[in-house]
Amino acid sequence: MVESPQQPKHAIVLDPVVLVTGGAIALIGVAVLAVFLWMVPRAANREVRAACAALHPSDPNPALCPVGNEHCRFPMPAPDFTAYDHNGKPVHLSDFRGKVVLLNFWASWCGVCKMEKPQINGMAGDLTGDDFEVIALASDRSWSDVLVALVDSLTRTKVDGKDESMGQALELYHRALPDGVPFQVFLDKPQGDDNIGEIAASWGIKAVPESALIDRQGNIRAYFVNKRDWQSPVAETCLRSLIDEE
To answer: Residue 229 and residue 216: Cα distance in Å, rounded?
Structure first.
C-alpha cells in the first residue's frame, strides 16, 4: 500500500488574496514615492522663486533658451564657459559644480558695476564657503584695468589705471587690498571692437551688470538685470534659500 505524501509540518501556504493585496499596496507605495520625488524639486524651486521675488528677478534671456522653446522657464542649464585668472590659468564654470554660484557679469568701465561691487564684496565675505561661491566675470581687455577697478570700487581710492602696467596694478591691488577679495575674478575679453566680453555676449548680454544665480547641479534658478543690493535682507534670504536647499 502506497501512502500519500504528507505536507511538511512547517509548510508555508501563500494566500492569493494576500498576495494580490500586498502587491497592490506595494504599487501604491511606489507610486506615492514617485509622486513625492517628482514634486520635491518643483516645491523647492517655488520656494526659491518666492524667496527671490523681492529682488525682482528678470525673465530668461532668449539667448539662454533652447532653440524653438517659446515658453522658456527657469531652471535651465547654465552654459559652460572657459575664463582665465590673472595667471592665465583656464577655469570652467563647471569646475564649481556642487556649489551654489552667483555669477556676476561686470566691467571696469561700468560705473553702475562699481556701485554694486561693495555689496557683492560684503555679501561674499558673509556667505562664501564650501556651499557657495561668487564669480565676477569682467568684460575687460586687460587685467590691469580689472585690478585698478577693484581697488577703486572697494577702497574708494581714485586711480588712473590707463597707464598702469600689470606689475604696477598688482602692486597697487596688494597694497590697497592686502587680504584680496572674497570672490573669484576672471577675465572675459571682448572680441573685435565690442565692449561686452565674449562669454557675456554668448549669454545674450548687451549691458552690465547682470547676475545669474546657479544651483549645485549647474542650473540657473534666477536672473537679475542691472545692479542689486546684495547685502540687503531680501538678498540674503534669496541666496540662503538656494544654499540651504537639499
So the answer is: 23
Q: Count structural domains, the chain.
A: 1
Range of the domain at 229: 43-243
Residue 76, classified by CB atoms within 10 Å of its CB into exposed (0-12), middle (13-18) or buried (19+), is middle
Any idea which residue has 562669454 for its cell? 199
- How would you write the pLDDT of the chain (246 residues) with one tens digit per residue? 555 555 555 555 656 665 556 565 656 655 444 444 444 445 556 788 898 999 999 999 889 987 766 678 899 999 999 999 989 999 999 999 999 999 999 999 999 999 999 999 999 999 999 999 999 999 999 999 999 999 999 997 777 656 678 899 999 999 999 999 999 999 999 999 999 999 999 999 999 999 999 999 999 999 999 999 999 999 999 999 999 997
Does residue 34 form part of some domain?
no
For residue 102, being part of any structural domain is answered with yes
Q: Give pTM, 2 decimals.
A: 0.80
